[in-house]
Specification:
GO terms for molecular function: carbon-sulfur lyase activity; metal ion binding. It comes from Duganella flavida. It holds the Pfam family GFA. This is GFA family protein. This protein has a single domain, classed as Metal Binding Protein, Guanine Nucleotide Exchange Factor, Chain A, CATH 2.170.150. The protein is built from one helix and ten strands, in the order E-E-E-H-E-E-E-E-E-E-E. The strands form two sheets. It has a seven-stranded mixed beta sheet with strand order 6-7-8-9-4-3-10. With 125 residues, it is mainly beta. The protein is 6% helix and 42% strand. The relative contact order is 0.27.
């Protein structure tokens, strides 16, 4: 395992990946699409260069859903784990779900998107 890479997998372990650093930024997105996709308050992602993403195992298990005209969401077709989000408008970048990283992500989360959609049941700072 390289310290210059992020590593992660899906819940069932069928898909394993690595992504080259640097992380441009990490974020929590409270848009309703991410809430529906994750079944949670937000989708949390590290934005990295798409050229550095390598699927080490289980590429055949990845399924991609076109959730909008430009948004593409990748997940494991066996366990349903959300792994990646990308935009066709920014093909040089890909967002990796923080919850699938091993070891856990320790960098800063600098951005929050669509905070006006933050659920009322989420504790306020």
């Amino acid at each position: 395992m390289s310290a210059a890479d992020l590593h992660g997998s899906c819940l069932c372990g069928g898909v394993r990946y690595r992504a080259a650093l640097p992380v441009a930024h990490a974020s929590h997105c409270y848009c309703t699409m991410f809430q529906k996709q994750h079944g949670a308050a937000a989708g949390s992602y590290a934005n990295v260069p798409s050229s550095g993403l390598v699927i080490e195992q289980g590429a055949e298990l990845l399924t991609e859903y076109a959730s909008s005209g430009h948004g593409r969401r990748s997940f494991c077709r066996v366990c349903g784990s959300t792994l990646f989000w990308r935009s066709t408008e920014s093909p040089d970048r890909i967002a990796i779900t923080l919850g699938t990283l091993e070891p856990e992500y320790t960098g800063p989360v600098e951005r929050e998107w669509f905070v006006e959609h933050k659920p009322a049941w989420l504790p306020r700072a």
